[in-house]
Predict the 3D structure of the following.
Amino acid sequence: MSKIVISGYYGFNNAGDEAMLTAIIENLREASPVEIVVISGSPLETAKKHNVESIHRFNALKIMKAFMGADMVLSGGGSLLQDVTSKKSLMYYLTILLFAKLFARKVMLFAQGIGPIRNGFLRMLTKIVCNLADVITVRDDDSYEELARLGVTSSKVTKTADAVLALHPVKRFEGMHILENEDISMDKPIIGVSVRPWKNNEQGLKELARALKELNEKIEAQIVLLPLQHGLDTEVCNWMQKYLAGNNTKSVVLRGRYTTEEFLSIIGNFQLLIGMRLHAVIFAAIMKIPFLAISYDPKIEGFAKMIEGTVIGNIEEIATTDIVQETMTVLDKDLTLQNEKIDKLQSLSKVNFEQAFKLVATK
């Protein structure tokens, strides 16, 4: 039985990253028996949720011990190698990869979103560490091009798709039950909104809130605010709810800590999702629900571009009128072509796992 150590942004109540981990574990287990160890910020929670062994992300001794017995160290997915949110975070993930190679382990960067990396020293260090990896898969064109600019050997790199796209659609009944318990009617259209904290986004959030008020009046849309990362997103959702209430518009903030399958099922009951979080948009795509993406990072535009989805604009620049207009356009849009492109990306996502199995089997 192969032993694989998985490193990523796990154990922090981020629905997108937890969905990635769910997809990775499910697909690895579908192929063959495998022992999985996950490096996590909350190892007890991760072990219970995913039925894996889990160790704390700062327990160096346990991490090194896990590396010594591993057939492969898998880093991913998501935007781990970037310095926009934190230089320390980038250093952490590069250190994990470097230690894995020091123990002569096979290393795969799995469905990564690379960049932006703005610091010159960190760009050089990322180039060195990535060139030590055995296999790299990236989820979009921008990441592929960023690795080329860094000087990473192209033969190591394959463009695939986000690991979360390997998840299967789920039935909508459970999400319907959750929404009904929150006093949301299934007889009126529901617009789901995923927002997150970001610098200079207050004006953009006000523009979005004014647009939601108009949509509430125009099509009697119910507004459901969906925190994908508890704590961080909840604070912004509460602010949005308060702002909407001040404009005589009712909204609901979902309070539960939902599993990946529950999030998919909830979003499957929306008529539209408006999302800042990449994985909120991907969840909508998997469930074949129309979406409008709000950009705060190139990864949002990169995904939308691949499936010909709609990006309203950057959070710092969006305008109420544009949001309302684009909403009405997307609600009437024929999604046939977009859904075909999603299906192709879902097939492409499976290539991540094919590459992983091939690397583990290599002697």
In short: The mean pLDDT is 94. The chain has two domains: 2-159, 173-344. The two ends are 14 Å apart (CA to CA).
